[in-house]
């Protein structure tokens, strides 16, 4: 029963990084639409933010497997 609860907990915790990634790329698209000449700088910042958000999700699934075993 504990393993099932850990995976359900991960599913709920993956909502945060999902929302964060959506907000990052929404801001990126809005920024490029306003000033297309700074696309390179904004793309670098957006990808860095994406990586940091995705690390939270990967860390969460690693903990879900640790606590389910």
Automatic annotation (TrEMBL):
Gene3D superfamilies registered for this protein in UniProt: F1F0 ATP synthase subunit C
Cellular location(s): Cell membrane; Membrane
Keyword Transport belongs to the record: yes
V-ATPase proteolipid subunit C-like domain: residues covered: 6-66
Site, as annotated: Reversibly protonated during proton transport: 54
Protein topology in the membrane: Multi-pass membrane protein
Gene Ontology MF terms: lipid binding; proton-transporting ATP synthase activity, rotational mechanism
Function: F(1)F(0) ATP synthase produces ATP from ADP in the presence of a proton or sodium gradient. F-type ATPases consist of two structural domains, F(1) containing the extramembraneous catalytic core and F(0) containing the membrane proton channel, linked together by a central stalk and a peripheral stalk. During catalysis, ATP synthesis in the catalytic domain of F(1) is coupled via a rotary mechanism of the central stalk subunits to proton translocation.
Family note: Belongs to the ATPase C chain family.
Protein name, UniProt field: ATP synthase subunit c
Organism: Blastococcus xanthinilyticus
Originating gene: atpE
């Amino acid at each position: 029963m504990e393993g099932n609860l850990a995976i359900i907990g991960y599913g709920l915790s993956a909502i945060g990084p999902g929302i964060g990634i959506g907000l990052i790329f929404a801001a990126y698209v809005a920024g490029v639409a306003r000033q297309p000449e700074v696309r390179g700088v904004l793309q670098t910042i957006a990808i860095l933010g994406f990586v940091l958000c995705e690390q939270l999700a990967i860390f969460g699934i690693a903990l879900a497997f640790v606590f389910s075993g």
